[in-house]
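Troubleshooting: if your tokenizer reports a length mismatch, compare your output against this known-good record of 308 residues.
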Amino acid sequence: MKKLIIATRKSPLALWQSEFVADILRKTHSIEVHLEGFSTKGDILLDSPLAKIGGKGLFTKELENAMLENKAHLAVHSLKDVPSFLPQGLVLAALSVREDDTDALLSELYKDLNALPQNAKVGTTSLRRKMQLLSLRPDLRIINLRGNVNSRLKRLKDGEFDAIILASAGVKRLGLESEVKFIYRFSKDELVPAAAQGILGIEARDEGEILALLECLNDEEAMIESMIEREFVRVLEGGCQAPIGINAEFSGGQITVRAVLGLPDGSEILREKKVLSKSEVVGFGAKLADEFLEQGARELLKRAEAML
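Known-good structure output:
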């Protein structure tokens, strides 16, 4: 194979991610790699929360169609946007080294969450973030904020919000640290990240020659961490429509797993924090999800959906 075509969204972050992967493939295989841009439904429908218009698949369907129609060989996604089940003929071929997987508060006036004034306006699209922010600060006014990272930052600078919440990975990848006066990085005990946050998922046609070329992109720790996280979400049948946070983190030979779910208004929340060894990872996501189900997680998530 002399040339690979990557199907990509056209947002600055998506293009950065695709070019990052393309550069590794070019250097590793001395192969030509071309980016082909597509607009997804999630990029076009910006006036409604994702939870109300279909969730994660809104950012992947058009790219998957391009691969299935042989217009592209692979697509690079933020893995947290990739549904658990992929169309026949496509596979999750590789997972990148994980970038900073925390959430960040960006503000032009306030240095951290505690510095925000009473009833401050905070922008985020995420039910997970909304739930955890309101559990910490019930007074906050959480306002829906869609669009790419740059457009969200512009709205902050235009004074529409006192602060906005973004994934730290996107801020770092786009080099936005100097674009805003204050950036506060939440600890994972404050805001549990989304499943697979900070990891790039490379989806590809299920063809041996393509998959062999993509093996160089795989990172073992990211694979293990995301396996636990995505399994937890899959068992709970949660996606963008559900306020769920789950994060597994390698540290000193052990894995710390934090999980949270509840109502979007933060009034009821289930939390767990576990430490396990590498030998315990297989099936742990499902086991942890079962523990949440025993505590009433299914009913809580149904009530959360009814609040949308």
